[in-house]
UniProtKB/TrEMBL annotation:
Identification of the protein by name: Coproporphyrinogen-III oxidase
Pathway info: Porphyrin-containing compound metabolism; protoporphyrin-IX biosynthesis; protoporphyrinogen-IX from coproporphyrinogen-III (AdoMet route): step 1/1
GO biological process: protoporphyrinogen IX biosynthetic process
Chief place of localization: cytoplasm
One Pfam family matching this protein: HemN_C
Record organism: Marinobacter halophilus
Subcellular localization: Cytoplasm
Cofactor binding, per record: Binds 1 [4Fe-4S] cluster. The cluster is coordinated with 3 cysteines and an exchangeable S-adenosyl-L-methionine.
Protein keywords: 4Fe-4S, Cytoplasm, Iron, Iron-sulfur, Metal-binding, Oxidoreductase, Porphyrin biosynthesis, S-adenosyl-L-methionine
PANTHER family (alphabetical): COPROPORPHYRINIGEN III OXIDASE, OXYGEN-INDEPENDENT COPROPORPHYRINOGEN III OXIDASE
Family: Belongs to the anaerobic coproporphyrinogen-III oxidase family.
Binding partners and assembly: Monomer.
Amino acid sequence: MASKTAAESNLPAFIWDEALIRRYDLSGPRYTSYPTAVEFTQTYGIDDMVKAAGRSKAAGGPISLYTHLPFCAHLCYYCACNKVITKKRDKAMPYVERVLKEAAIQSRLFGADRPVQQLHWGGGTPTFLPKDVMQHLMAGYGELFNLQSGDDRDYSVEIDPREVDQDTLTTLWELGFNRISLGVQDVNPVVQKAVNRIQPREMTEAVLNEARQLGFRSINLDLIYGLPHQTPESFAETLDSVIELSPDRLSVFSYAHLPDRFYPQTRIQQDTLPSPQQKLTILHNTINRLLDAGYEYIGMDHFAKPDDSLAVAQREGRLHRNFQGYTTHSDCDLVSLGVSAIGQTDDAYFQNNHDLPSWEAAIDAGQLAIIRGVGLSRDDRIRRWVIGQLICQFRLDRTQFTDQWGEDFNRYFTDELNRLTPMIQDELIADSGSVLQVQPAGRLLIRAICQIFDMYRKEGASQRFSRII
Ligand SMILES: C[S@@+](CC[C@H](N)C(=O)[O-])C[C@H]1O[C@@H](n2cnc3c(N)ncnc32)[C@H](O)[C@@H]1O
Ligand code: SF4
């Protein structure tokens, strides 16, 4: 059967309404999980996680395997990721040995025979690892988990093109990876200098071409808007240059300047940043330019070519969201390894220590390094489902809700429906009585809509999160 076209799907088109954006652009979570990570508590410990993993094992089914590889050779000043800056490559092997010790424990807890449908190496910079260390890690996983080789596996890795040598991509391909994402951010030399990330466009192009030749699919590039010295004109040039490279997917993230939370950002001077008005213009132009270039707008911050699996999944209502952003895979339980990594089961989230020496000490003592988490109540799971529907499908069907949860939507969410009224009046979302459907003007503000159903954000905006746009 031919896949649906964008017009046939239930997706709202997109309208830019600046007055509404200003009214609703408060700070809020990105909902890569619900409850969000700020709700994790230290009262949730290893015993709780072991029980959650036991329930997951009993339920069975495929798993997703995430590894956090924190090392980077250089510091990008904007960076908000959990990373360790070092030039010492010999740190990689001891780290990976510990990851394998942790993997041995988790494989027993979650079940070694469950198919690993999704696998992701994130960071930091996974390609900081020398070739033999990458091979050692994957060989170890091969013994501990049921790795897959079928075409429908989704094995992806984040690549910093500055950390790619002549063997890197071939090695990754031979290890079973079939998808990559390249960090780019901006190709403008002035911007690159200001964020301490010198990466000539030719370098990105060479990596992309080699990846294509090897057979990697769904190649993604990460861009960030709102960086120092960016202007609408400079970012338009960056986009032209990136579109010429013709990646299958693009992630376009908003830079949030929070130097109190992310120390490296103190190296960025506030007065070099684009103004909020300029930032809005950059975003508006970016969406228009990418739509003109034939990309489809995915969720709230991704773009994909119409034949890419992410675009097909969105048109067919099969989009999902997890810690890596939007994906095509249904929610597998997530086994997560390495410093700061977050695992997930149907009814729990749990996170490793984000301090490298503390994580190492726990593993060396033969223990898990979980230090916080949250067990999900039934209400959490209901709200996670609702927020997932809104942020991925942009609609919520009351009959589907009742089929899924055995509850009457209007009774369960009386208060939320009242608080949704101004958004309905502003045409961010429409209520037909059977379906809540996000409208074109509400698409960019989907996080504000989701926040209405967030039990922990009833008070509205919170300074702990970046602004929505
Ligand atoms: C772990 S990095 C990608 C892999 C590799 N370390 C690199 O930089 O090429 C993940 C992505 O997060 C995004 N990112 C990092 N810090 C950010 C920030 N403060 N605001 C928005 N996006 C950010 C960047 O787009 C970056 O490519
Ligand atoms: S953006 Fe990537 S390479 Fe740069 S510091 Fe962050 S994790 Fe490392």
